[in-house]
Amino acid sequence: MKNFYLILSCCALFSLTAHSENFSGDDFNGAWESDGGNQKVQPVGWHALYSNISGFTSMKAGTVSKSGDDTNAYPTIENTFAGSIMWGTKTGYVIPGILSLGTPWIYVNTTYFTAATGDLGVDGGVEFTGRPSKITFKAQYYNAPTSDIDDAAHIKVYLWKGSAESTDISGANHTDEMSAVLAGNAGATLIGSGELTIDNDIDAFETKEISIDYTSQEIPEKMNIVFCASNYLSKKPEKPLEVAEGNYLQIDDVAVVYNSTGIENTQNEKLELTVTRQGFSINDTSVQPITIYETDGRLINQGLVNNGRYDFPFIPGKIYIVKVGNAVFKICAL
């Protein structure tokens, strides 16, 4: 019996802490790079699951590829076979397609190169101190007709403070692993979370949203978003590693959405601010004055929002106070 880890980097099991990066995680039209195993690619600042095992039989595969073009790029996240075909027989297993702000990993317990059980997780995320009401993104999803496995795409978002240490079923150590954070293990306080399952085909991009349910009034320190083309993300380690080969999830235009804060008693629950690195949009097309402040009260920008859009180069991970008309927002860009 052989046990394998499919991880993003050789140091992933030992140094996976939250990190703050300038990533093009809004519209994916920025820089792309090879994934950690040089199998396929990933948008800079995001991390894809891959397999990079070689030996008697090769079990190499990437799960994320670049679709579209340079002016409208987006990732295709696909459940992918990792293995080879020998004497007409497939030898290997299907790994779930994952793209995350944290570092995905998968442990596969195999018998003669056939997957028996597995353990899947994502470690860390990015530094983030905002409290958005939800995230939005565009999605397409495809169920491969060649697979008889009942599968679905699964997306999670969660915010927390502190750090949790945990071990997987093989005994390997992890820091801020997803299930430990969501369970509020010692050292980590879950601030808020949300999830979405997509099980029906989506032939053209549709806007999806995930509301964040806050269980604490505290300010988060970190956030992670996980896009997975398989619902194995939500299964228990003792369950068989069953992933529908060929199912894929395509995403675009990831953004965070804020409600007004109620500062100065000007709360407007109907007005929403959707933030990207390039600026923001609001669900109101009227012309309104805009002022943007540092948290110390220093004015850094002002103008008019027109047709619901306003351009401003937000720095990822930094807190801003944005006033739109009489509504005030405390926001943090991805």
Structural account:
InterPro entries: Put_CMD_sf (IPR038653). The structure is a single chain. A hairpin with a 2-residue loop joins strand 24 (272-276) and strand 25. The relative contact order is 0.17. The protein has 334 residues and is mainly β. The protein is globular and about 70 Å long. It has one helix at 178-182; strands spanning 2-7, 32-34, 41-43, 47-48, 50-53, 59-62, 64-69, 72-78, 80-86, 89-95, 98-100, 103-111, 114-123, 126-127, 134-142, 153-162, 165-167, 173-175, 188-198, 202-211, 213-214, 222-228, 248-259, 272-276, 279-282, 288-293, 299-305, 309-311, 319-324, 327-332. The chain folds into two domains: 2-254, Jelly Rolls (Sandwich); 260-332, Immunoglobulin-like, CATH 2.60.40.
- Largest pleated sheet: 8 strands, antiparallel
Distance between the termini: 43 Å
Helix content: under 10%
Provide the low-confidence segments as ranges. Answer: 1-25, 262-267
- Indicate the mean pLDDT: 83
CATH architecture classification of the largest domain: Sandwich
- Proportion of beta-strand residues: over 45%
The SS-based structural class is mainly beta
Radius of gyration, in Å, reads: 21 Å
User: For the record, what CATH class of the largest domain applies?
Assistant: Mainly Beta
- What is the fold named in CATH at topology level of the largest domain? Jelly Rolls
Provide a count of the helices. 1
Keywords: Signal
Protein name: Carbohydrate metabolism domain-containing protein
